[in-house]
Write a structure and sequence with these properties.
This protein has about 375 residues and is α/β, with parallel strands linked by helices. About 40% of the residues lie in helices and about 20% in strands. Helix 1 links the parallel strand 1 and strand 2. The structure holds nicotinamide-adenine-dinucleotide (NAD) and thymidine-5'-diphosphate (TYD).
């Protein structure tokens, strides 16, 4: 069958990528979706079991740093779109091993950009109808202060510039024109990759789009990140390592809402633009952890809150960003996107999913991850 579009999704075996691949494969049977993933510790084909036999889906095990392989694949599949998610994504790992982050996130992105450029520039129509969509993070903007008006206890309700309601710990938000101030090797590498993507537009005229999203949560997230790690630990009554005093604030978005935004922006976003994507949903870590404990306890038939004694304050993360908060009013205004799930609903769905998928957790936490985890917390 002749497909209407041929799209490479990188990192499709990871957390967000698997939701994006599933959405595109199911929603667009007339698109060919090629999932390119190296299958690091974070990539797992079990995340895509339900769609792996679809005729419009192909998996290719490859490293995005392999420029020759990327160019050959683009030529073979006559690719007209790239949705780039492959990355090393965990801040704690970046503190231990910054080189891997520079290699995959910076050089890997450059290798993809250069492959797309050489392939698209070789065609008679050049960049016409093409799109390179780079998925990035709000962490490139650094950290925000916690401020609040006199006499109001946080979280207070404020208004983003769109006028929408926002549960916030401060009056400042990351906007598309906020200064880049990355603090961790992870965010520094993502920031660098964002600059390369924009440089390919400014220098070669490549039709690029960049989006910067807040913290995602939901099914298939590797259990080294806060929410799945803690759900699993509460279930097994293992200690919950809270960094510092648990005062840091993150803006949480349900992963399927991010995938929906990616679909919308890939199709309707303006070329060379940046869009911020956020949940309008800020939580202090310690408050979020208490919600997780109460939810797991309730769903397992334990006394609600009984597992709060698992909370264990440990040394803070080096360079720990205090607060992230996204103003996604540009995306709301231009494309009409907004989060569809209330946080309570999203957390309930997420906790249920992890409790129902112990086999998935056991599978992904065997082997290499165990070794890493042991060294990570030794001495704490
Ligand atoms: P993840 O770690 O779950 O998945 C990353 C995927 O990339 C894995 O499948 C891995 O195998 C693959 N990969 C890693 N190195 C590769 C390489 N060299 N070649 C090919 N594949 C490789 O990450 P995630 O949380 O799904 O994040 C996806 C993207 O979204 C990243 O670019 C990340 O920076 C960005 N992002 C994530 C969040 C979040 O909260 N998770 C928020 C905003 C932006
Ligand atoms: P994480 O899920 O690693 O995402 P990010 O660092 O990209 O925001 O962490 C979310 C927050 O939870 C962050 O403030 C660090 C904190 N955290 C802990 O307190 N303990 C943990 O074991 C982890 C993984 C994170």
């Amino acid at each position: 069958m002749a497909y209407k579009r041929s799209i490479i999704v990188t990192g499709g075996a990871g957390f967000i990528g698997s939701h994006v691949v599933r959405l595109f494969v199911e929603k667009y049977p007339d698109y060919r979706i090629i999932n390119v993933d190296k299958l690091t510790y974070a990539g797992n084909l079990a995340n895509l079991k339900d769609i792996e036999d679809r005729p419009n889906y192909r998996f290719v095990k490859a490293d995005i740093c392999d420029f020759d392989a990327m160019l050959a694949l683009m030529q073979e599949e006559q690719v007209d779109g790239v949705i780039h998610l492959a990355a090393e994504s965990h801040v704690d790992r970046s503190i231990k091993d910054p080189f891997t982050f520079a290699k995959t996130n910076v050089l890997g992105t450059l290798s993809l950009l250069q492959a797309a450029r050489l392939y698209w520039e070789s065609l008679p129509e050049k960049y016409e109808g093409k799109r390179f969509y780079h998925i990035s993070t709000d962490e490139v903007y650094g950290a925000l202060e916690m401020t609040r008006p006199e006499g109001v206890e946080p979280p207070f309700s404020t208004k983003a510039s769109s006028g929408s309601h926002h549960l916030a710990y401060g009056e400042e938000f990351f906007r598309e024109d906020s200064k880049y101030q990355p603090h961790s090797p992870y965010s520094a590498a993502k920031a660098s990759s964002d600059h390369f993507v924009r440089a390919f537009h400014d220098t070669y005229g490549m039709p690029v789009i960049v989006t910067n999203c807040s913290n995602n949560y939901g099914p298939y997230q590797f259990p080294e990140k806060l929410i799945p790690l803690f759900i699993n630990n509460i279930r097994h009554r293992k200690p919950l390592p809270v960094y510092g005093r648990g005062e840091n604030v993150r803006d949480w978005l349900y992963v399927e809402d991010h995938a929906r935004a990616i679909d919308l922006i890939f199709h309707e976003g303006r070329v060379a633009e940046t869009y911020n994507i956020g949940g309008f949903n800020e939580w202090k870590n310690i408050d979020l952890i208490r919600v997780l404990i109460a939810t797991v306890d309730r769903l397992l038939g334990r006394l609600e809150g009984a597992d709060e004694d698992l909370i264990t304050y440990v040394a803070d993360r080096a360079g720990h960003d205090l607060r992230y908060a996204i103003d996604s009013s540009k995306l709301q205004r231009e494309l009409g996107w907004e989060p569809s799930l209330q946080f309570e609903e999203g957390i309930e769905k997420t906790v249920r999913w992890y409790l129902d998928h112990q086999d998935w957790l056991d599978n992904v936490t065997s082997g290499d991850y165990q070794k890493y985890y042991e060294t990570m917390y030794t001495g704490r």
